[in-house]
Design brief:
The complex is a heterodimer. In chain A, helix 2 (36-46) packs across helix 5 and helix 3 packs antiparallel against helix 5 (90-102). The radius of gyration of chain A is 19 Å and the shape is globular. Chain A has one domain (34-114): Cytochrome Bc1 Complex, Chain D, domain 2 (Orthogonal Bundle). Chain A is built from five helices and no strands. By secondary structure, chain A is mostly helical. Chain B is an alpha/beta fold. Chain B folds into four domains: 1-30; 32-150, Rhodanese-like domain (Oxidized Rhodanese, domain 1, 3-Layer(aba) Sandwich); 156-256, Rhodanese-like domain (Oxidized Rhodanese, domain 1), CATH 3.40.250; 277-377, Rhodanese-like domain (Oxidized Rhodanese, domain 1). A five-stranded parallel β-sheet of chain B has the order 5-9-8-6-7, with helices on both faces. The termini of chain B are far apart. The chains are: A mainly alpha, B alpha/beta. Chain A binds chain B through residues 35-38, 40-42, 44-45, 103, 109, 111, 114, and chain B through 271-273, 297, 335-340, 342-347, 350, 360, 362.
Amino acid sequence: MARKKRFWSVVCIVFFVACSFGAALAGSEFSNDGNGRKGKYLYRKNCRTCHDGSSAAEISPNTKTQAQWQRTFNTYERLECAEEWQKMDQGDLTDIFTYLYDHAYDSPQPATCG
Amino acid sequence: MKNFKFSQRMNAIVVIAGLLLGLLLGNAPLYAKSQSDLTFEPEDWMFHSLVDVEEVARHVQIPVADDVMIIDARPYKPKYIKGHIPGAVSIPNTTFEDGVERLPEDKDTLLIFYCGGLKCKLSHKAARKAEKLGYSNVRVFAEGFPRWMEVSGHYASVSAEYVAARMAENDVVVVDARPYKPKYVKGHIPGALSVPDTQFDSLSAKLPRKKDFPLIFYCGGLECRLSHKSAKAAIELGYTDVKVFSGGYPEWKAAYGDDPDTTIMVEAGEVEGSIDIAQFQDILENKPESIYLIDVRDADEFAENSLENSINIPVDDLEKQVEDLPDDKPIVFVCPTGARSGESFYMLQDLRPSLKEVYYLEGGLVFTEDGTYEIKPTE
């Protein structure tokens, strides 16, 4: 009986630790609470310079779904242009994310450029 | 009896005359003393009572004292309007008769005439005319305006015409030294920068970086000291071309009207950079020419329907034109959703931060079939 109790406490602790770890991970995710208006301009300034189809693929908000944008941003280190991202601060990237996410393919207002 | 009375009266007159004479003679050495301080040899044609720049400076106070009048005897245009001793009244010698009404009623008022320096006879001539009118306390500042400007820390006052002309050339910064609220907000010279005198130290960073860039300060008119205080502070900061428009906003309004259309204050909406929608609607209906309404949709969309008074600069072309955007009226960007107009707002924030009066319509400007428009707030 006592043993069983200890078992459950261990399970609880493990579960708790796992949960908080997960929460910590989630905390590093980008969220769309930035300034999307500003993000649209920052995207023009920092991303569209290449991503206009000339030196990199043309990208607009609706080229990805919200989940895809989320994944792209959470793992941007893997992108070929990661260096460009690192030049920007977290706030600006959050604004850009907000813009792309809010107008993603499956968003209520998908947008190409308007 | 009769005779006696007469001679008594006679006596009284003599005594009074004697007293008056004594008073005059007693004062005479005083004039002579101040004359001997002069750093130049008075010419024969000069007026009998001359004063130097220190004496003039002592009487230049804002507001001007009731018992002193400093009078600029040079032509009104172009001399007076371009620069005069602060507080000086313009009575050009050539049109002296027309200016007589500007002279004070009290004939004992100290009148100091000046003009363009030691070679200039206008002030001497005008001083004699004033004396003939009965003014008893007349002086001439013979070294005149050039000497005034030589003294470090001195500056000139200018008139509304001059301010308007320089603003039209856009080669001057006009500074409103009055409190931002409610004075500046209620109305100001279009294009003027608000640097309230009380906040001069913290806001002087708004002034041009080049210290030789022309500055003109103004405030609430001849009684107001703020512009003079700010001008002095600017000179202390090292600005070399500082002037004061002493007549200030009252004179400006009298000359050019308070033109609410060009002095409009845009009210900010809740979202950063956005214009208050109710006010925007009011502007569209009642005074569309008070703002630069820039439609940032593409040219083909604009061609289909557009607002009267709006200009089309597609957001993709805006960057190239950022430097050319005018700064004399607030700019408001519009598009159908707020996306491109918001982007335009942030572009200006980034590329031309000196433009302060820039707004966008958060929400959309949507046209209906019959050509009317609707403003849709963002859900």
